Amino acid sequence: ASVVVAGGGGDNAVSAIGVGAVSPGDAFISLGTSGVLFVVTDAYRPAPQSAVHAFCHVLPNLWHQMSVMLSAASCLQWFCRLTGTTEVALLAEIAELSEEDKANAPFFLPYLSGERTPHNDPDARGIFWGMTHASLRAQLGYAVLEGVSFGINDGLQALKESGTPIAQCSLVGGGARSPFWAQLLADILAMPVVTHKGGETGGALGAARLACLAAGKPVAAVCEKPEVWQTWRADPIRHHTLMQRYAQFKALYLNDLHYRQH
Fold it and tell me: In CATH terms, is domain 11-261 a member of 3.30.420.40?
């Protein structure tokens, strides 16, 4: 009997199949070891000036752009290892912080492995800034989540500057299991963030779907979006506060870059 050999794809393009990102404008955020903001496009749209990636999709006549940060959920794992706690326990501590606690939290630059989009800076390094004797472990943990989310927002702005609008994002990867992080992303990005049942397994589901397509099943029947678990919408007041902190986050990177270059 003949054996069908299914073509594969890059991890994020395959995750796109798993989350049903198969039409121009469909977008998702992947919070794994690295962080990716992926959007489907109808043409090849390179933007190397801001380190935006552009590739063909795994489906015919489609392409995609993506912003990539080199350390995302791995920053949280690193911090938990240093402070002797688990991700679940730390996220529970963070959820108990007041709005004032979060507004006064230290800042974190999540460049533990350098950074790609938009800086293309292999020499960038992670930084905590603004700690005092009163700083709580939960505030430092919050700073990690916020710093990674600010990095995702850097990528969103780079994609927008390349001419690609994004109205809504699905959320996949291990970070998709955290409701707090999903809401924080929505508040920072000022757009709906959608989590799906089984969203943390997007890549594996996408690979299985590619096998179904290779076996002859139609795209429309195979590449449906998974069932929505929850839609997280931005709070305008929190967005305003976070944008003030985002401006400081960007200034910290530029100050560090200046220091390293002189």
Answer: yes
